[in-house]
Design goal:
The complex is a heterodimer of chains A (547) and B (444). Chain A is α+β, with helices and mostly antiparallel strands and 547 residues long. Helices cover 21% and strands 35% of the residues of chain A. In chain A, strand 22 (469-474) and strand 23 (477-483) form a beta hairpin. Chain A starts with a helix and ends in a 5-residue tail after the last strand. The model of chain A is unreliable at 1-22 (pLDDT under 50). Classes of the chains: A alpha+beta (547), B alpha+beta (444). At the A-B interface, strand 1, strand 3, strand 4, helix 4 and strand 8 of A face strand 1, strand 2, strand 3, helix 2 and helix 4 of B.
């Protein structure tokens, strides 16, 4: 398709600028240019070889090169207005070396043979400077040489190829539905990511990957001027590693949950959700304020993913355990002595948590990680016991393992790769239980839908979570909506209170599109699956205040 | 070198404007040189430098606008990017909120945001900071983790209505966490400045080591309401939460600053009358760019005066809708302090808690500005005017509005690094009564 034809087809071009979470190297670009390849695979291989040879000749014992092209698209609306359409592109190369047993890294957007060579020289120079402070040489776990391989997110419809007009029409239709149902304000957006990543290493791997992610969202607000109250409800979508087919809103992907609410699994109906949101926000304003105390919580997957992320995903990262994040994101209560006992009681026997970089539809799914390790699935918590961490090539020897877990990632070509969270998920229960049956067994409880407020300490122990929709459960029945609800616990007690998990039929993914870590801070996208689960006797506080 | 001089930037932007065939054109030119070093486990883990220059061009026809960018600066490339922005503008839909660019503005004199000393930071300086932090830690059975980052950047803006604006800035941030090797103590300190000679990473490292050693074997205290002495970083972490003073959100009824029944809280007293918060781009200790992204001039302006809301920020579109003058967002926030030192405030406290810093602060209720978060890296119990012993960390559930209504004492101001970012604040330490701690954390 010719550039002009594409612009005419979309009806819109890039316009405006707004504060969005972009790489400092991302530049606005018109849509048609995003669909034109910059380099073919053989050109990338030739450039990568320039870096590998240059670094080796200057004394590097290991080198990896990432030539990356990162595309983003944001389509943003409110009520009847298109607020912004931004397409961005960031292209360049990052080169990492080991010299004198020390890491060095440099990056540049000059992806020419000369630019690549100079970047390799800078990486080597930095490694040599840092080696003065290196106490122990870096030890890399062995990984196979994969030769020339490729991987692509299994999308059905490339969202970047869908005309912008179609996206705008969808968002404005959703806004109209929310306003029709009584919303005062509504914001909606579609956010797309495409990471085109080429990796080559001095160990003989040449890996080409094409990664897609999509985040459709809506925020519906109702304002009661008389009482001065306002409430909002976000979308019941999840960010996913899929194409535009996620917005098909298929009937078979709709889930009717306790309380009569509709939730979504592998595809999402934005317009329907916008209408429901407006109706639910009105109820939220008039809901009963919660009585603080102990409750049995029934946590829906759209909520529980965040609790898993914060209280299981982060503390099982080995770099945190070892202290690399001590100055920023923090350390972990899951210290190595606990893991070494092989019997640390993390949770009840029902609690089985796996890390999985291969899960179809997940945000973190790739074929190979950003240091060329083939991705896999492994156990973190087995029958309630801590059995493993998340670790990468220069860490696994510390825990006596020979193979990286394949969870190394960098947010762009211009940032150094480091250990990031894999998709970490609670396995569905073996007992055949539906959410309705679970609710029926609760005497005094709260059913919580969708993630809300969240906070956890620097060792991932004491936490507080809110939510979006809260339903009171009395004697096995949903009684009505509550507000001002947050629950507090510590991680170990909370997971030991896990009394029941619904079966595979109820298993779904939630996720974080921008999870921060590192200095300078980098962002990672990761999914977390679970089925609805029950936690007994959790402390619930009332967050309502009068000012 | 990605930091162009004023003349160099103006020359490029004038050429760009000269190529325009649209109703109007506005162009921005930005460049950055940055460097950093990170260390942990008493060893350097990563360090690097980055550099980038970018030109952005927005052309418009009526209310239709298009933007294109490029990072090549020969004449052919400059003309190409202008033509592309015009093409996109012709294809774009009308934006009802589009505001035409401003004519030339007046910016009150030379900016104070640049320091030659910071601009000359070298990799060797960064390595020395790391070494001077790691060495004393390793002799005291303590492990250091820290981060130093420095930046030099410039921003320039020009348009077809004759506006030209230029500013260059430097900055340096240093944070360090020291943890005792037995895992029972942790201390933190920081420094941030425009001019690197105003921070002392070695002294900060020593303070963090002392805090770590003194915070070993913390005792548990019951959650509840306590008098707290907040070091300046802790103060700033909460004060910043009330400074999202967007007028449009307030007018729309979805902000703490919305008035019941309609309108905003401008003119209403919301906190203790000793609270004065303002923004001032010319401030000596925490300078900011004298202009915002669309070229509007910043000026010294009260946000909270005598506890009363003085101003909210109005973008140009919303100001026109409300028939008021636009109020551009401030580049810094300054809260007036007092003369009390941390030691003075401790001496004056019968029973209380000294907080070094907070962590993982997240909103709970936007209507009351209720937030939750935790203390971290040095929390101590005060009894009869003295630090009695270290205590376990607390989770709080508190609103900065409630907090600043419970103000006891204002301490000295300091340029602050907050727990998850740098809001460019100059904020005092403070003593607060009845601060709500809702649960205990065993995290060290």
């Amino acid at each position: 398709m010719k550039r002009r034809e594409f612009i005419q087809l979309t009806g819109l071009g890039a316009a405006g600028a707004m504060m969005l979470p972009l790489s400092s190297h991302a530049n606005p670009v018109e849509v048609s240019l995003m669909l034109t390849p910059i380099l073919d695979i053989q050109q990338k291989k030739q450039l990568a070889d320039v870096a590998l040879n240059a670094a080796k000749s200057m004394g590097a014992t290991y080198t990896d090169v990432r030539i990356g092209r990162y595309l983003n698209q944001f389509v943003v609306t409110r009520e009847k207005k298109v607020q912004n359409i931004v397409n961005t592109e960031s292209f360049g190369a990052g080169i990492r070396v080991i010299v004198n047993g020390t890491w060095g890294f440099a990056a540049s957007n000059n992806v020419t043979p000369d630019g690549i060579k100079k970047t390799a020289e800078r990486a080597v120079a930095i490694a040599k400077a840092n080696s003065k402070f290196q106490k122990e040489p870096v030890k890399l776990a062995q990984t196979p040489s994969y030769g020339e391989v490729s991987w692509k997110t299994p999308i059905v419809k490339n969202a970047f190829e869908v005309p912008i007009k179609e996206k705008v029409d969808l968002l404005l239709a959703a806004n109209a539905k929310a306003m029709e149902k009584g919303a005062n304000f509504v914001n909606s957006q579609i956010f797309l990511v495409n990471e085109q990543k080429y990796f080559a290493s001095s160990e003989g791997s040449y890996i080409d990957q094409d990664v897609h992610r999509i985040l459709p969202g809506i925020n519906v607000s109702v304002v009661d001027r008389n009482s001065g109250q306002f409430k909002s409800r976000p979308a019941f979508s999840s960010p996913v590693g899929m194409g535009y087919e996620y917005l098909d809103g298929k009937a078979e992907d709709k889930i009717k949950s306790p309380g009569g609410i509709i939730l979504y699994n592998k595809s999402y109906d934005l317009i329907e959700d916008a209408g429901m949101a407006a109706e639910q926000v009105k109820q939220m304003i008039s809901a009963k304020s919660v009585e603080p105390g102990k409750y049995d919580l029934v946590l829906e997957p759209s909520h529980l993913w965040l609790t898993i992320h914060e209280s299981v995903g982060h503390p099982t990262e080995l770099d945190r355990v070892l202290g690399y994040e001590a100055n920023f994101a923090g350390t972990s209560f899951l210290t190595m002595d606990k893991w070494e006992t092989k019997k640390f009681n993390f949770g009840s026997k029902l609690v089985n948590v796996v890390a999985d970089k291969t899960q179809v539809g997940s945000l973190g799914a790739v074929g190979y990680d950003d240091e060329g390790v083939k991705c896999k699935k492994w156990d973190l918590i087995k029958d309630g016991v801590l059995v493993n961490y998340q670790a990468i090539r220069d860490q696994v020897n510390i825990i006596g393992q020979k193979e990286s877990h394949g969870c190394c990632y960098s947010q762009s070509w211009s940032d150094v790769q480091f250990q990031r969270m894999a998709n970490v998920s609670l396995q569905a229960g073996k007992e055949q239980v539906t959410p309705e049956q679970m609710v029926a067994g609760v005497e005094k409880g709260i059913y919580i839908v969708k993630d809300g407020s969240f906070s956890i300490d620097q060792q991932r122990y004491n936490f507080q979570f809110g939510g979006v929709l809260f339903f009171e459960i009395k004697n096995g029945k949903i009684e009505g909506m509550l507000k001002d609800v947050a629950y507090q616990a510590n991680t170990q007690e909370f997971w030991n209170s896990c009394a029941q998990i619904c079966d595979e039929r109820d298993y779904r993914l939630g996720g974080a599109f921008n999870d921060g870590k590192g200095q300078p801070s980098q962002s990672n996208a990761v999914s977390h699956g679970s089925a609805t689960a029950r936690f007994n006797g959790i402390n619930v506080i009332n967050t309502g205040r009068t000012i | 070198m990605a930091v162009l001089s004023k003349d160099e930037a103006e020359q490029i932007l004038k050429k760009v404007i000269g190529f325009s065939k649209a109703d109007g054109i506005q162009a921005t030119l930005n460049g950055n040189d940055g460097g950093n070093i990170r260390y942990a486990r008493n060893s350097v883990s990563t360090s690097g430098e980055d550099s980038n220059v970018n030109l952005g061009v927005q052309s418009y026809f009526g209310k239709k606008a298009g933007t294109a960018t490029i990072n090549e600066f020969d004449d052919a490339s400059l003309e190409k990017v202008v033509r592309r922005s015009e093409e996109l503008a012709q294809l774009a839909p009308e934006n009802p909120e589009f505001m035409e660019p401003l004519p030339q503005q007046t910016y009150g004199g030379e900016s104070k945001t640049w320091s030659e000393t910071t601009a000359k930071i070298t990799p060797e300086y960064r390595a020395k900071v790391a070494s001077d932090s790691i060495s004393p830690a390793s002799t005291k059975d303590v492990t250091a983790a820290g981060f130093l980052e420095d930046s030099r950047n410039f921003n320039a803006l020009a348009n077809s209505k004759g506006l030209f604006a230029y500013n260059k800035a430097t900055g340096v941030n240093f944070t360090v966490t020291m943890r005792t090797n037995d895992g029972t103590g942790s201390g933190w300190a920081a420094g941030t400045a425009t001019d690197v000679s105003k921070i002392n990473p070695s002294l900060a490292s020593k303070i963090a080591i002392d805090k770590a050693l003194n915070s070993r074997n913390a005792k548990a205290l019951e959650p509840g309401k306590y008098t707290v002495v907040l070091e300046s970083s802790a103060s700033a972490d909460l004060v910043r939460l009330m400074l999202n003073m967007n007028a449009r959100q307030a007018d729309e009824g979805r902000s703490f600053y919305s008035k019941k029944g309609g309108g905003t809280k401008i003119g209403e007293k919301i906190v203790d009358e000793r609270v004065n918060i303002y923004t001032d781009p010319w401030h000596e200790d925490v300078p900011a760019s004298p202009w915002v992204g669309d070229g509007q001039a910043r000026k010294k302006m009260d946000l909270i005066k005598g506890g009363v809301v003085s101003n909210l920020f109005y973008d140009r579109y919303w100001a026109a809708q409300k028939n008021v003058a636009p109020v551009p967002f401030g580049g810094n926030s300054i809260m007036e302090g007092g003369t009390a030192s941390i030691e003075d405030m401790i001496k004056d406290t019968k029973k209380g808690v000294l907080v070094t810093r907070f962590w993982y602060i997240r909103p709970v209720d936007p209507q009351t500005l209720l937030f939750t978060g935790l203390t971290r890296d040095g929390t101590f119990y005060i009894e009869n005017g003295k630090i009695k012993h270290p205590i376990k960390n607390f989770r709080f559930n508190e609103s900065p509005i409630i907090m600043l209504n419970n103000l006891e004492t204002l301490g000295k101001q300091e340029r602050v690094v907050t727990s998850e970012g740098n809001p460019n604040g100059f904020i005092p330490s403070m003593k607060i009564r009845d601060f709500t701690f809702s649960s205990l954390s065993d995290a060290v």
